[in-house]
Design goal:
Length: 84
């Protein structure tokens, strides 16, 4: 398909906007507009200290667990427990 290059504005630098901008930019001139000072939207890794231990919490995938994503685990054939 021979689509002429266009100038495209993508509003929002979350994962959806970044993915769109990435793929569109292969053929078009893309400008990404993000209201926050950082990219990622809901997806961000935040350091939390609990009982003297520091944990890196990914706010975009905080419910990535066996109960919620059991079909994912099956389809990816991932081990259910981390190797010791
Ligand atoms: C606490 C929490 C836990 C989650 N857990 C999971 C999970 O376990 N598994 C899972 O698959 N998903 C999870 N999600 C959902 C997942 O994070 C979101 O579906 C995904 O990040 C949404 O991406 P998005 O790009 O569509 O939107 P967003 O991440 O919301 O990005 C939208 C971006 O657009 C920007 N924006 C909005 N309006 C404007 C404007 N007018 N001008 C410029 N910029 C603008 C915002 O600032 C933001 O950066 C969770 C979400 C939350 C909040």
């Amino acid at each position: 398909m021979n689509v002429p290059a266009s100038r495209i504005a993508v509003v929002g630098g979350g994962i959806a906007g970044m993915a769109c901008a990435h793929y569109l930019s292969q053929r078009h001139e893309v400008t990404l507009f993000e209201a926050n000072a950082h990219l990622g939207g809901h997806t961000a890794t935040v350091d939390v200290e609990l009982h003297g231990h520091r944990h890196a919490i990914d706010t975009g995938f905080i419910v990535f667990n066996d109960r919620t994503f059991s079909a994912c685990w099956r389809s990816w054939a991932c081990p259910r427990k981390p190797p010791k």
